[in-house]
TrEMBL record:
UniProt keyword Hydrolase, yes or no: no
Domain tRNA synthetases class I (E and Q) anti-codon binding: residue ranges: 453-525
InterPro entries (UniProt xref): aa-tRNA-synth_I_CS, Gln-tRNA-synth, Gln/Glu-tRNA_Ligase, Glu/Gln-tRNA-synth, Glu/Gln-tRNA-synth_Ib_cat-dom, Glu/Gln-tRNA-synth_Ib_codon-bd, Rbsml_bL25/Gln-tRNA_synth_N, Ribosomal_bL25/Gln-tRNA_synth
Family: Belongs to the class-I aminoacyl-tRNA synthetase family.
EC assignment: 6.1.1.18
GO annotations of cellular component type: cytosol
GO molecular function term, any single one: ATP binding
Segments forming domain Glutamyl/glutaminyl-tRNA synthetase class Ib catalytic: 25-335
Name of the molecule in the record: Glutamine--tRNA ligase
Species for this entry: Thermus scotoductus
Length: 549
């Protein structure tokens, strides 16, 4: 099975290659380096790079860097890092800003052919006339005047925003995008990649088709919000093919697909910035965020993200995908690779009154259905920690954990029964219990079976851990519900617990993912965790019994 599931785009690609429209497939992933990539970008990354791999083509990473006021080298480096982390190697890393001279020469051709003109209107005046379908009073300037003014724009003789270059198409066109769209604007700002060589910058609708054409892109894949822009894309290419160094054919074509959207989170760059700059999260890699670097820090593997894109498919139908599906894919990815270990999030100390010394139990890492072999020595001693929620003084009906008069099996160890409860100010501080002799790997000889199985760790041997329990960022499926997305933030999207984990993890590589039995999937936080101070992130909860906070 290929990286990209069969869809309308694979049908187009196969037809074009079969009919010889293109000798070789060439796609591109063209992010603007004005922020960090998020899970929504993963669909475009997998689609563009996946098609190239599936059909023996190539895929470029191209920075669509035509806005010097918002773009940074920091973002460009982070984007490439995220693409490579997802498992893709760009055939070339390119910059739209490297094509500025070619774009300028193409603009001169349009002016010379009477297809572009310099406009002095303010942005507000221009918007008003476009809305009315009326032409600019500067639309009929002569070719000579437009060439002179455009050259002066390039030399920096006019202030920012004072003039633009517009395509001369139709001021009353039914497609609003074609009502003499702006091709260039003046911006006196240094560019992170091009430096100070330019003070005029091409608009996206003019630059993007030229970038594709210059590079030899065959299939230009965009999300559906660019559907109306396709008309400008085609206009630019059709009016410049065979000119200013561009070939007559073959030319690229734009196709649109539905973007990836998830419940219980936001993918809008503006909203993500508000969360970060407002201090609602700790930074762009905060594991509560949907950015790729945040998911990476949380412990989600790139394999899971690629599978999520494959499983959700590529279509033209907009739909918000349930967070449950993403979590299910992550669990499916981790289940066969995460060894099972024991940890306690909210420890309750238990003293075993009839047990002395210690012993090491040979405990398997894997359940039988995984089909893997591997064991580790698990220490057992007189004092252990169990999960506080696994004990009840007054248990409800059907309780299958520890309670007065009710036995439990300690996972991989003995059957245990309660003897006494030590309370302080109404809170249970300590349990005294006894193990049922002869129950290591065997049922009690008296025939009284335990009600359930609980996890535990040896108090003497366990490693202290700060557990960070991450949940969904928003309480509602649609964060915009009610109008203010910040009011729907989940106050329990992060809970910190001071607990313990079995000592075997100290010998493992720090990037090992674990399933803490009955608790979820965890790994060491790659930023804050240290050998002497373990910090573990919950990647995703177990499906069984999970309830959103």
């Amino acid at each position: 099975m290929g990286l990209v599931p069969p869809c309308f785009i694979t049908e187009i690609v196969e037809k074009d290659l079969r009919e010889g429209k293109y000798k070789k497939l060439l796609t591109r992933f063209p992010p603007e380096p004005n922020g960090y990539l998020h899970i929504g970008h993963a669909r475009s990354i997998v689609l563009n790079f996946g098609l190239a791999l599936d059909y023996g083509g190539e895929c470029n990473l191209r920075y669509d860097d035509t806005n010097p006021e918002t773009e940074k080298e920091e973002y460009a480096r982070a984007i490439e890092e995220d693409v490579r982390w997802l498992g893709f190697t760009p055939d070339r890393v390119l910059y739209a800003s490297d094509y500025f001279e070619t774009m300028y020469q193409c603009a001169l051709v349009l002016i010379q052919e009477g297809k572009a003109y310099v406009d002095d209107l303010s942005e507000e005046e221009m918007s008003e006339l476009r809305a009315q379908g009326k032409p600019s009073p500067y639309r009929n300037r002569s070719v000579e005047e437009n060439l002179e003014l455009f050259e002066r724009m390039r030399r920096g003789e006019f202030p920012t925003g004072s003039r633009v270059l517009r395509a001369k198409i139709d001021p009353a066109h039914p497609n609003f995008k074609l009502r003499d769209p702006v091709l260039y604007r003046i911006v006196h700002a240094s560019h992170y990649h091009a430096g100070d060589r330019w003070v005029i910058y091409p608009m996206y609708d003019y630059a993007h088709p030229l970038e594709d054409f210059i590079e030899g892109v065959t299939h230009s894949l965009c999300t559906l919000e660019f559907e109306n822009n396709r008309a400008i894309y085609d206009w630019v290419i059709e009016n410049l093919k065979g000119k200013c160094g561009l070939p007559l054919s073959p030319r690229p074509y734009q196709y649109e697909f539905a973007r990836l959207d998830l419940t219980h989170t936001v993918l809008s760059k503006r909203k993500l910035i508000k969360l970060v700059e407002g201090g609602f999260v700790s930074g762009w890699d905060d594991p509560r965020l949907p950015t790729l670097r945040a998911l990476r820090r949380r412990g989600v593997r790139p394999e899971a993200i690629r599978e999520f894109v494959r499983r959700t498919g590529i279509s033209r139908n907009e739909a918000r995908i349930e967070m449950e599906l993403f979590e299910e894919v992550v669990r499916d990815d981790l289940n066969p690779i995460a060894p099972r270990v024991l940890g306690v999030l909210e420890p309750l100390r238990v003293v075993l009154t009839n047990y002395q010394g210690e012993e090491w139990v040979d405990a398997p890492y894997w359940p039988r259905d995984i089909g893997k072999e591997g064991n580790r020595p698990l220490p057992f001693s007189q004092e252990i920690y169990i999960e506080r929620s696994d004990f009840s003084l007054n248990p409800p009906k059907g309780w299958k954990r520890l309670a007065p008069g009710q036995r439990v099996r300690l996972r991989h160890a003995y059957v245990m029964e309660l003897e006494d409860v030590v309370e302080e100010n109404g809170e249970v501080k300590l349990l005294k219990a006894r193990i049922v002799p002869g129950t290591l790997g065997a049922n009690p000889e008296d025939g009284i079976k335990p009600k359930g199985v609980i996890h535990w760790v040896s108090a003497r041997h366990a490693l202290p851990v700060e557990f960070r329990l991450y949940d969904r960022l928003f309480l509602t499926e649609d964060p915009e519900e009610g109008g203010d997305f910040l009011k729907n933030l989940n106050p329990r999207a992060l809970e910190v617990k001071q607990g313990f984990i079995e000592p075997s993890v100290a010998q493992d590589p720090p990037d090992t993912r674990y399933q803490l039995e009955r608790l979820g999937y965890f790994w060491q936080d790659p930023v804050d965790s240290r050998p002497g101070r373990l910090v573990m992130n919950r990647i995703v909860p177990l499906k069984e019994g999970y309830r959103p906070s």
